[in-house]
């Protein structure tokens, strides 16, 4: 007689087992933690913080790209994007829905960072997910180059496109993992810090949240900042948890 297997309800232990990292995933988690610690240390060191400077500008560019992408999705015409040496940025557009474009800067860069962290868990031999992530980042950089208003942004995009191309051809792309992970961690941390610095602690008078609060008058800008902060933490957590789940299944491990 044929054996009929009845489906079993998923238990809490099943979830715990699925989230238990493999040896490869433990290494990835250690790399993420090391990156976060190194970024926090270098951030405040007077001389060594220059190491982070290109990546800070890159995360600002991702922030501005997120504004532009939301603008494109809501019918806006993007006129220009620029970033400044003092790590500021501006996106100029005509039209669009400000209720979507204003929060997109912080939330979009957090989401991009979380997706890159998720992709960084790819330890397969062909590294297809990492390669797709690097291609996506390359497309974002080319879009930024198209919209760029100043030479700082143009130079930044050309530099990082060159880094991506170089990593593709070094040791079969093994360096893409570390690059994609670092950009993901940097983008998430920078976005979280920006939200707290600009919106929660109110170190700037005018911000995306203050303009958003004028559009949606139900909450002050600090409350919107806290809401965006919670959403950004959620993106970061989902990126890590999804990486633990998806790539464990992909590698045929249970």
Key terms for this structure?
9 helices, disordered C terminus, mainly alpha, about 250 residues, about 70% helix, two-stranded antiparallel ribbon
Low-confidence stretches: 250-254
Radius of gyration: 20 Å
Q: Quickly count the helices.
A: 9
Number of strands: 2
Helix amount: 55-70%
Query: What is the H-and-E element order?
Result: HHHEEHHHHHH
Brief description of this entry?
This protein is 69% helix and 5% strand.
Give a written overview of the molecule.
This protein has 254 residues and is mainly alpha-helical. Helices cover 69% and strands 5% of the residues. It has one domain (25-250). The chain has nine helices and two strands; from the N terminus they run H-H-H-E-E-H-H-H-H-H-H. The protein has a two-stranded antiparallel sheet. Helix 4 (98-119) crosses helix 8 (208-215). The longest helix is centred in the C-terminal third of the chain and has 30 residues, at 221-250. The model is unreliable at 250-254 (pLDDT under 50).
Helix and strand topology:
Layout: H1 12-19, H2 23-44, H3 53-73, E1 77-83, E2 89-94, H4 98-119, H5 128-147, H6 151-169, H7 175-200, H8 208-215, H9 221-250
Antiparallel strand pairs: 1-2
Helix pairs in contact: 2-7, 3-4, 3-7, 4-7, 4-8, 4-9, 5-6, 7-9, 8-9
């Amino acid at each position: 007689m044929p054996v009929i297997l009845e489906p079993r309800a998923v238990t809490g232990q099943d979830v715990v087992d699925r989230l238990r990292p493999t040896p490869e995933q433990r290494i990835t988690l250690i790399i993420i933690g090391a990156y976060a610690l190194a970024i926090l240390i270098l951030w405040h060191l007077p001389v060594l913080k220059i190491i982070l400077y290109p990546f800070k500008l890159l995360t600002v560019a991702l922030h501005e790209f997120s504004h532009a992408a939301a603008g494109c999705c809501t019918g806006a015409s993007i006129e220009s994007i620029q970033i400044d040496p003092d790590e500021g940025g501006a996106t100029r557009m005509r039209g669009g829905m400000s209720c979507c474009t204003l929060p997109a800067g912080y939330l979009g860069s957090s989401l991009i960072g979380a997706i890159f962290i998720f992709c960084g868990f790819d330890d397969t031999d062909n590294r297809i997910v990492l390669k797709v992530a690097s291609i996506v980042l390359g497309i974002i950089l080319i879009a930024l180059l198209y919209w760029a208003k100043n030479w700082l942004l143009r130079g930044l995009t050309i530099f990082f496109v060159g880094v991506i191309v170089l990593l593709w051809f070094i040791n079969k792309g093994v360096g893409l993992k570390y690059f994609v992970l670092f950009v993901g961690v940097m983008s998430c941390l920078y976005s979280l810090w920006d939200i707290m610095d600009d919106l929660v602690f109110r170190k700037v008078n005018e911000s995306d949240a203050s303009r958003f609060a004028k559009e949606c008058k139900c909450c002050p800008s600090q409350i919107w900042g806290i809401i965006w902060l919670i959403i950004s933490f959620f993106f970061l957590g989902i990126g890590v948890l999804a990486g633990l789940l998806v790539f464990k299944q992909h590698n045929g491990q249970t």
